[in-house]
Design brief:
363 residues, alpha/beta, TIM Barrel, four-stranded parallel beta sheet, 16 helices, 13% strand, A_deaminase, Ado/ade_deaminase, hydrolase, A_deaminase_dom, nucleotide metabolism
Length: 363
């Protein structure tokens, strides 16, 4: 036994990680945005060099407003309208996650936003899944094993959620493991999409809902009480139903229900600061929720906009709250327990990949 490795970004990159909340259109390489814009004739990018474009995305996302944050996706979605664009972005997404030590990923995107070049919804999903598969094979060729699945997202301000839910069920045997709704929360409650959620429950399909990021506790309550969400996308404002920060903290009815039912929270620390859901990383309720034994998970949300990775998110939490290897392992196992793949596969990744990987780091 040599003892645990020091907890720094380099060592964290070696740790096996699982991400449940990563947006495909929020994780492009700046160089890829430029290349695809040139190839498809998109001429509305704000700057024309890789470094400047990466900096622009980060600066534009740091507005403190979810609505302004979402405006940055106009550019990434615009270059993902062709088979070549979807394929390349999906392929590179897998390579980038694997290079960061991610061994399991659920990557989500909204097919309805990729139809302007004439593709059908089914074709959008098919081309994306091919990209994921080829990215997985490319990562394996370099000795990096990763399992990537897909969530199909419906935009909460639109009226296609039932159609996207049916699409998710149609592809459920081809690595589409669940459904999601996303977009601006204010004015677009999840209960507007009850027919989609009722259909999914009838089909025994799993789904998560973006809730408690910008609108607060009422959004979370609707997501679980009316819609039956299996997980909460962000869910950070569950803290509004908790009084106190110590061992004597008091949970309200909604917070108590979420904890008792072990409903996973897909927390995205950097993104939550950028959108104004929390004031700063040190103010993030992640640590309070972890100490109160909510099922917290660490996620990237949008790697391009937040200029981040899973390793960087974990490193920031280590710096902010003093976590050790055992904590990072617990958060990773939380994610795998909450994944939308079958139980035996979840167990295999936990027992054969995550626990042995952390054992090496802990020493």
């Amino acid at each position: 036994m040599t003892g645990p490795l020091p907890l720094d970004l380099t060592s964290i990159q070696r740790a096996p990680k699982a991400v449940l909340h990563d947006h495909l259109d929020g994780g492009l390489r700046p160089s890829t945005v430029l290349d695809l814009a040139a190839s498809c004739g998109y001429d509305r990018l704000p700057v024309d060099t890789e470094q400047a474009l990466g900096a622009w995305f980060a600066a534009a996302a740091n507005s403190g407003s979810l609505v302004r944050y979402l405006e940055t996706f106009e550019h990434t979605v615009a270059v993902m309208q062709t088979p070549e664009g979807l394929h390349r972005v999906a392929h590179e997404c897998v390579e980038d996650l694997a290079a960061d030590g991610v061994v399991y990923a659920e990557v989500r995107f909204a097919p309805e936003q990729h139809l302007t070049a004439g593709l059908s919804l089914d074709e959008v999903v098919q081309h994306t899944l091919v990209g994921f598969a080829e990215g997985t094979a490319a990562a394996a060729a370099t000795g990096r094993q990763i399992r990537v699945t897909c969530l199909l997202t419906a935009m909460r301000h639109a009226a296609r959620s039932r159609e996207i839910a049916e699409l998710a069920v149609r592809f459920r045997d081809r690595d589409v493991v669940g459904f999601d709704i996303a977009g601006a929360e204010v004015g677009y409650p999840p209960s507007r999409h009850l027919d989609a959620f009722e259909y999914l429950r009838d089909e025994s399909a799993q789904f998560t809902i973006h809730a408690g990021e910008a609108f607060g506790l009422p959004s979370i309550h609707e997501a679980i009480a009316f819609c039956g969400a299996d997980r909460l996308g962000h869910g950070v404002r569950i803290v509004d139903d908790i009084t106190g920060t110590g061992a004597d903290a008091q949970l309200g009815l909604v917070a108590n229900y979420v904890r008792n039912k072990r409903i996973p929270l897909e927390l995205c620390p950097s993104s939550n600061v950028q959108t104004g859901a929390v004031a700063s990383l040190t103010d993030h309720p992640f640590d309070l929720l972890a100490r109160l034994r909510f099922r917290v998970t660490v996620n990237t949300d949008n790697r391009l906009m937040s200029c981040t990775s899973m390793s960087q998110e974990m490193a920031k939490l280590v710096q902010a709250f003093g976590y050790g290897w055992a904590d990072l392992q617990r958060f990773t196992i939380n994610a795998m327990k909450s994944a939308f793949i079958p139980f035996p596969e979840r167990l295999r990744i936990i027992d054969d990949v995550i626990k042995p990987g952390y054992a090496v780091l802990i020493g």
